Structure formats: structure tokens, C-alpha cells
Amino acid sequence: MKYYSTNHNSPDVTLAEAVVKGLAPDRGLYMPERIERLPKEFFDNIGEMSFHEIACRVARAFFGEDIPVDRLDSIVCDTLSFPTPVVKVEPGIYSLELFHGPTLAFKDVGARFMARILQHFIKIGDDRRKVNVLVATSGDTGSAVANGFLGIDGINVHVLYPKGKVSPVQECQFTTLGRNITAIEVDGVFDDCQRLVKSAFLDKELNDRLLLTSANSINVARFLPQAFYYFNAYSQLKKAGAGESIVMCVPSGNFGNITAGLIAHRMGLPVKRFIAANNANNVFFNYLQNGVYEPKASVSTIANAMDVGDPSNFARILDLYGNDHDRITSLISGTTYSDGLISATMADCFDRTGYLLDPHGAVGYRALKQLLLPGEVGVFMETAHPAKFKDTVESMVNTTVEMPARLYAFMRGTRQTIPMTSEFSDFKSYLRVC
Ligand SMILES: *Cc1c(COP(=O)(O)O)cnc(C)c1O
């Protein structure tokens, strides 16, 4: 299968090239040339299939031509070493819990999958340059990618994060690992980190010396596997007798997660509509209202993994629907919430239902409460474990949040970081000696 750039100004590439390059030379994002509609028989039987069976079937539709099927199946099963259960919160509203992975956030799925795909292509390739993964993070990407790649031979990972803008728990998940993982503390905001990474990919001198690749959600090997759990959620709802008029609600930042859901929809997943739930970063929300896309600087919120002012995957959404605002708004609606509303939602949901939300999931839950119509079944993605935001959650909700053991393990490690300005020349000097 070939992959094309959303800017249509650079050559189509193979999967291996798309995974290694991350971003296309014309600054577009890669998209698969075909999105296969899965047969009716698959959806008829999906309620009886395991998560691994469902995910393997979905993975083959994209990667089956490029990776031997046995190898692909084992990559999929290895990636999905944890469940993604659907939990009923109240009548008509379900939580798709995506936080049961090693770093307690949904990005574990994409990061683990990408690490294994990249390793596969490096092993069979003949490029002798050292592979360096660059990743900008506003919080959870860094830990998921660092842990997904930890100890993988022949690949070094550099995690760029904005100084003072990620929670202490998030920070220790990528600054304490050592081995092939380096944490870089940038004096700036998330968008500066993202800009440094993008500039490195476009720098000829660096790319001649190093094989640079991205593990941000722009990478096809990170964002496509997120489609797996949308199918699995449908399977669980179907089994529970709630498989009709499904609305999937995705707390969104860079819009990689929801784009994977939209691709699942294109593959035939019977979802009635989607909601992109945002915090105060409302660029996509404004686009839905008036058709104008106006990137802005990101603002800091308590749902900080969604603090994005120029979501990368917007280009993919436009591409999927041929730039047609009407098509987009007929399938996707949006919401935007202040920190005050997010906090009130966490408290209210816990008081009424006993279900503890994290600030990101709270944005999704609130959007369903606001926009769900009679007869619809709503599922929101609970994208992180509340313990990752223990202090925030405990200050809003009258309860104590238990720390899972795997979080404690990170917090006991020694923090190691490299300080960096937001000037590209400084970052380039650092990479030159890698
Ligand atoms: C990354 C992240 C998001 C946003 O996901 P996108 O794919 O960037 O839209 C939401 N919640 C949590 C906890 C995250 O880590």
C-alpha cells in the first residue's frame, strides 16, 4: 500500500518510508491510499471476536501487504498486552477506558505499535545511519513513546517537553528511564517543542547524518492502530445490547485519536456521529462553527495533554472529507470547556455516579451530557487514568485517588534531563553530536 501526502506535493511512499519519515517533505501528513471497507460478515460476528482477533483483522486491512501476516499478528498481540474495557457510567453513557497500558494513557497503543513496526523495518532495511526518534510532548505522548521504545535495539529516543508545563507524574514517566531514552526540557511551550521537531526533519544536514523519525501522532504507525479500540468498543457495546445509534466522543488535542475513529468509520464501523471535545483550546470548535481555521498559541489548562493551538491532524480530517465543511459538520460536532467546567464535571460525575474521571475524560463526558440526543448511546474515551492527575483530581473531587503500582515505580526513579532553549540552532547543535 502506498501513502500520499495531504499536501499532494511530494511523491507517494511505501509504509516503511512513511513510518521512518513521519512528515512528508512538503510538510503534509501521510495518508493510506486506500481505506478498505470491512465486510458485513466481520461486523455481524464482531460481538463474538476477541480484541486480538478484531485488531488483527483491522491491521491487515492497512499493513497486510507490507508486513508478513504472521509477523503483523504478533506485533498486534504484543502491542495489545492490556484490555480496553467499556464501562457503564450511567444509563446511555459509557466510558471506553484506554488507560490500562504501561503509562496509563491511550497513547500506549500507538506508541507500542509504532516501536515494533519501526524495529521490523530497521531489521530488514540496509540503512546504516543510527535511528533517532524525536517526539514533542505536552505530557502523555512522551511517556507513552519513551516506554513503548524503551530498550528497543538500534533506536534512540529524544523527548522534548515544555519546562514546567507537564505534571510531575507525567514528567517522571519519561525522565527516569535512562538507557536509549533522553528527556529534553525546552524553555517554551508545547508548540515550541513541536516546531523544533518539525524543523529538524526539514534540515538537510541533520538528515544526511542521522535517520530522524517522528513518534508524534502524525506518524501513520502511531495513529492508525488507534482504530483498533474503536472496533473493540463497538464489539463490547453490541454484546451489551447497545450497538445502535452510537455517538463516539473523543477528548481531542492534536486530533490523532479522533482521526483514527473517523478512519474506522470509513471502514464501515457503525457509529452514528462523533464529538470532538475540547478544553479552552478551541481552534477546531471555531472551525466547525464558521468554517474558518485559525491556529492560535495554545493555552494551559488542567487537561494539559489537549493544550494544542494548531492540531496537526486537522489536515487529515480535511483530506478525509475533501475539504468539505458541510460533510465534516454533518458527522462531527464540537464543544469547548473552561477549566471551571471541567472541574465541576469531575465532581458532579463522581457525586452522582461514583465514577472517577480524569480531566481529559471529563471533557468527553461533559460533551455527551450536553449533546447526546434521546435514543443515542454515548461512549467517551477515558484517555488517562485519574491518578496521573492526582493533585488536580483530589482538589476537585471529594475522594482520594489510588496510585496504581506501575505509577509508583516511575516516581521512585532518578530524574535526568537536558535543558534546551527554544532556538532551533541549539537543538541542532545537540543533535549533531548524537
Ligand atoms: C494525547 C491526549 C489527548 C489528545 O489526543 P489527540 O490524539 O492528540 O487528540 C487526550 N487525552 C490524553 C490523556 C492524552 O494523553
From TrEMBL:
Alphabetized Pfam families for the sequence: PALP, Thr_synth_N
Residue intervals of the Threonine synthase N-terminal domain: 2-77
InterPro entries linked: Ser/Thr_deHydtase_PyrdxlP-BS, Thr_synth_N, Thr_synth_N_sf, Thr_synthase-like, Threonine_Synthase, TrpB-like_PALP, TrpB-like_PALP_sf
All copies of domain Tryptophan synthase beta chain-like PALP, residue ranges: 83-377
PTM annotation (N6-(pyridoxal phosphate)lysine): residues: 107
First-level EC class: lyase
Domain of life: Bacteria
UniProt keyword annotations, A-Z: Amino-acid biosynthesis, Lyase, Pyridoxal phosphate, Threonine biosynthesis
EC number: 4.2.3.1
GO molecular function: pyridoxal phosphate binding; threonine synthase activity
GO biological process, one term: threonine biosynthetic process
Reactions accelerated catalytically: O-phospho-L-homoserine + H2O = L-threonine + phosphate
SUPFAM superfamilies from the UniProt entry: Tryptophan synthase beta subunit-like PLP-dependent enzymes
Pathway: Amino-acid biosynthesis; L-threonine biosynthesis; L-threonine from L-aspartate: step 5/5
Swiss-Prot/TrEMBL cofactor(s): pyridoxal 5'-phosphate
Family: Belongs to the threonine synthase family.
Designated name of the protein: Threonine synthase
Organism: Duncaniella freteri
